């Protein structure tokens, strides 16, 4: 019964995080701090949305949320191009504040994103792109996540905009 309560709280609170990355980045990309690469993506929740109650019964600091989302291009929302796997630690239940780490896997590499996020539908949070592998090995910049109206439910979609710097 406690698990059902926590899942209901997570879904009602809008606990969900998706991230994406630049697609088709290559060695010739000139994205730098004066000319960042802007990528618009969609993140879609899957059935892998788990809230783990680690402390006192109910949402409390230290509880963990894990997820795996499908990633789509904004201009082609029907073709999956990657996935985002992440975990978030609940910091303040009253304002639904979490710290999160996400790895977005794409055919040409991975991108990591970290940040403090408020999980409330229609809220935009900004996180830091902290690195990557493959075509994204020099990636840094910001990711803006705008949560959709139904968060944490399989099929819920959210907007992700990356501003990536791939060159010094």
Order of strands across the main sheet = 1-2-3-4-5-6-7-8
> How many helical elements?
1
Order of helices and strands: HEEEEEEEE
Given the C-alpha coordinates, what overall shape results? globular
CATH superfamily: Allene oxide cyclase-like
Strand residues, percent? over 45%
How would you characterize the largest beta sheet? 8 strands, antiparallel, barrel
> How far do the termini sit from each other?
52 Å
Which radius of gyration do the C-alpha atoms yield?
16 Å
Total domain modules? 1
**Arithmetic mean pLDDT:** 81
By secondary-structure content and strand pairing, the structural class works out as: mainly beta
CATH domain fold name: AOC barrel-like
Low-confidence stretches: 1-28
CATH architectural category: Beta Barrel
Helix content: under 10%
Total beta strands: 8
The first-level CATH class is given as Mainly Beta
């Amino acid at each position: 019964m406690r698990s059902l309560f926590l899942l209901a709280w997570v879904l009602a609170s809008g606990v969900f995080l998706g991230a994406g990355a630049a697609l088709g980045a290559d060695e010739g990309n000139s994205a730098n701090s004066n000319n960042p690469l802007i990528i618009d993506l969609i993140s879609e929740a899957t059935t892998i949305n788990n809230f783990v109650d680690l402390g006192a019964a109910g949402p409390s600091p230290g509880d963990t949320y894990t997820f795996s989302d499908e990633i789509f291009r904004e201009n082609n929302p029907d073709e999956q191009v990657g996935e985002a796997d992440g975990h978030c630690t609940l910091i303040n239940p009253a304002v639904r504040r979490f710290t999160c780490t996400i790895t977005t896997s794409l055919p040409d590499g991975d991108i990591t994103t970290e940040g403090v996020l408020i999980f409330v539908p229609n809220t935009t949070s900004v996180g830091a792109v902290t690195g990557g592998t493959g075509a994204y090995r020099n990636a840094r910049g910001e990711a803006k996540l705008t949560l959709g109206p139904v968060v944490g439910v399989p099929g819920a979609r959210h907007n992700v905009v990356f501003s990536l710097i791939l060159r010094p």
